[in-house]
UniProtKB/TrEMBL annotation:
Domain of life: Bacteria
Classification lineage: Bacteria, Pseudomonadati, Pseudomonadota, Gammaproteobacteria, Alteromonadales
Entry's Gene Ontology molecular function annotations: iron ion binding; phenylalanine 4-monooxygenase activity
Record keyword Iron present: yes
Protein keywords: Iron, Metal-binding, Monooxygenase, Oxidoreductase, Phenylalanine catabolism
GO terms classed as biological process: L-phenylalanine catabolic process
UniProt key word Coiled coil: no
Family indicated by similarity: Belongs to the biopterin-dependent aromatic amino acid hydroxylase family.
Name the UniProt record assigns to this protein: Phenylalanine-4-hydroxylase
Species of the source: Shewanella canadensis
Signal peptide boundaries: none
Amino acid sequence: MSKITEYVARQPDANGHIHYPQEEHDIWRELYLRQVGNLSQYACPEYRQGLKDLGLSGEKIPQLTEIDKVLLETSGWKTSAVPALISFERFFELLANREFPVATFIRSKEEFDYLREPDIFHEVFGHCPLLTNASFARFSHAYGKLGLAASKEDRVYLARLYWFTVEFGLLQAKDSSLLIYGGGILSSPGETQYAMGDKPLVKPFNLVDVLRTPYRIDIMQPVYYAIESIAFLDEIVNMDIMAGVREAKKLGLFEPLFEPKSKAG
């Protein structure tokens, strides 16, 4: 089994500036240049506008203080530097406070294509551009408040809602054409090409169906859920999501469309 890199988040100095070595800027540049060519064809326009507003480029890893200036002006959000994976409790707490968690490390060359933990490229390149959009920002805030008040058991169901929207959500127009808004896809060139191909199943968003759909974090997704526009996220906010959770519990999970994870080392 390949060795898993142990990442350590970089700490900001007294002015909030994080000093990254040049080799880490080089990794950002390679990741950025490899994916930016896909964006004009596959990313939703709201994401592309956010990328422009944030001034993200392939030159260097951006400073969170620079990201915060734009987010605060456009949607009232800011980032929050975190070590890596954080608890559900802390995650919901941050979102409820309009703070988006960003791990301040970048993946190694050895884990260039697949990373077990979200790094700064995934968080900033994948998610932060859409936080400049009012509907996406409102959805993220409402989701955080809902999760903070939910039980541990209910949070597992709510995680599926986040997974199939914020992380792996698609937009599907009336002509059936697809665009991407999920940050898990937008930060992965491999998943971008896969999601836009003919292998995965794309289903229209249905709250209870989403809450009943199991997923694995370490494979290409066999199924995606599509909404008609970013503005539809406001409609989801107005749904009785916890009633959906209760219904999903009653009906049970769908059979997974993937093989169970091997326990072999």
